[in-house]
Known about the structure:
By secondary structure, the protein is α+β, with helices and mostly antiparallel strands. The N and C termini lie far apart (161 Å).
Amino acid sequence: MVKRTKKGSGKKQAGKTKKTASKSVISLWFWRIFRVGLVTGLVGVITIGVSVWTAVSSMPGFDELKASPNGQMILVRAADGSEIVQLGPSFGQWLSYDDIPKVMKDAMVAVEDRRYYSHIGVDPVGIARAASVRLERGHWAQGGSTISQQLARNIFLTNSRTFARKGREMILALALERKFSKKQILELYLNKVYFGGGAYGVDSASRRFFGHPATKLSLAESAIIAGLVKAPSNYSPTADAQAAVDRASVVLEVMQDAGTITAAQAAETRPAQVKLSTERGQNSVRYFTDWALPQLDTLIEETNAPLEVWTTLDIKMQRAATAAIQANAPGGAQGALVSIDRDGAVRAMVGGTDYVTSNYNRATNAVRQPGSAWKLFVYMAALESGYTTEDIVVDEPVTIAGWTPRNSGDRYAGAITLRTAFAYSKNTVAAQIGDELGYGTIANMARRFGISTPIKTTPSMVLGTSEVRVLDMTSAFAGVSQGGTLVTPYGISKVTTIDGEVLYEQKNKQKTELVPDYVTAGITDLLQTAVNTGTGRAAQIGRPVAGKTGTTNSNKDGWFLGFSSGLTTGVWMGRDDAKAVSGLQGGRAPARAFADFMKIAVAGRKVEKFDTDVVLPDWLSEPDDEVYFGDDGDSFFVDENGNPITLGDNDFYDLEDGTDTPDQDQPLPQTLDEKWIDRATGGDEQKRPAPTDKPAPPQDDGAPNGSFNNLLSLDVDRSRNPIIRPIIDKAA
């Protein structure tokens, strides 16, 4: 008999079979995934373990990590060795774990890594919390990095935001935890982390922001420093004091929440009442360092080692210079001052009235018209050409090539001495001298004395229409002060490593004579007269001073440059937009600033009288024309070394390079007649002095330590190429 089942029971059985099969498949895949995951996990753990072990074995020891710097530091010292500013990263004294105040350690751990003492270098809880905030806010608002990870990044890695870098950071953090204790890691971290303002480590930050070592940190100060790590540039007390205080208040709340301070301690702590240290170096000293320090690139080989740079700056003079400019610069005007010692050492430099509001260095970068201060070169060229300080010149209205110069007040004195014309800055006399000597001659004189900016050779150039730098003009006056020799300004005297190894030291340079002694004596006499009785009377300081004022049209620029007791100082005042400044004449505010500064600057120096005794060379002491031009039979030619030159009837002389050549179209005569000199030198026969007037003198050879009375004079162009000029005969 066939047994029958109930209707539908087969379907149920089939369903059960399918469910059982489905569960079996899921179970199968689960165990497969589990096994794969387990294997992958084991491989990952082994890989991480090997990586950590490798990192531990190759990681530097504790002492090595303590010694490694984060970057180059430059400590700048004044001439007396005192510290004036520190640039680049700053590293304070290394503090051991026990020397760091507990409030500083607690503040840092609370705000940066609350689970620091319990995790293994990487904190899964912190990572999960950061990820949760990321999902909630849509952006990364909270970091998951531990102190160990931050230390690994600061020492070994960069700040690039990549998963690869993050992976290496975690491996290194785990390695740090295996190699060093928690105390050692925190010690390294607190001595190396960057706190802004160039300060690395808590001691450097404490000195930078509060003016004392980190061993004296209070709770409020610790909270400020701990709050900087998140964003040093945003929360730095020197950048935004209020932001630093607000961030410190957050740190105190976190510390209270973490249980490291009580509610009462948090309530009675006032970060806003913390006294911040005045920022060092953000004053006029920076004008000097901004000019001097870039010169390191040319003085020493490239190095990352911390450096000590010994400069020429005199702190007392720098303070006096700053005060002089700030006290005398007219309202709305800027001022600049440079003071140079005998050998070119820059003792003071001010590039503006306030470095913090304007760090543009007007002493070294700005180019302005010097006005009548330019007459230094005009009158030196005149003295070199044969004028003397007692020669009579005529101060009268003149017109030269359509240009009519005017004196101040349109006053004209008639026949006066050269000394008087200079002392009272007579423009018409300077114009006549320039027209007589040639504007290229005056430009050449300025080039010799270090003027590096373009020089116009139009008639008005004699009144200072070519723009110059304060530093260049001051160097030129220093050259006069030092007997007509080249003075090159410098600001760095020595460079050493932090360990004392000398990398560079300034050496005394051989003097280069620019003009003969009689020119220096004559121009010094004129400069002294300008201060004693002329336009520069406001620059008197109770001891001999030689100097010159300068004022441009509409009082846009005012200058005074002068020297006393071996110190040369140049002062400029004016507006950056070149607008007129009411009452700004060189003999007023600039001269008063010069006097205020120099009274202090030379107070400890010996009073020195100027050497103004002019000893003229033979060719200037004999007035007869035949001494200069001679009889036809007495003339001959010499080369630059004084050796006779014998020429045939068909020989020619190349005025460019001083060599014989048959290709020139200008034959050289056997005698030096005046018409030929006019043609050879580009002169104007109609402007040549009459026979009874002072004859044209020789030009100097323009070369260092050269002779000034050869029959053939050597001058040089800007590229130091010789320019040959035949000038006088053997009778000289």
